[in-house]
Amino acid sequence: CALSAFDIEAQLAQSARHVARASIYRILEELERLRLVARIEVGDGVARFEPIDPDGHHHHHFVCDDCGELLPFADPELERVLDRVAQRLSFEVGEHDITLRGSCGRCHRPDRQLPPGAGAISPRPA
Question: What's the whole-model pTM score?
Answer without folding.
Answer: 0.69
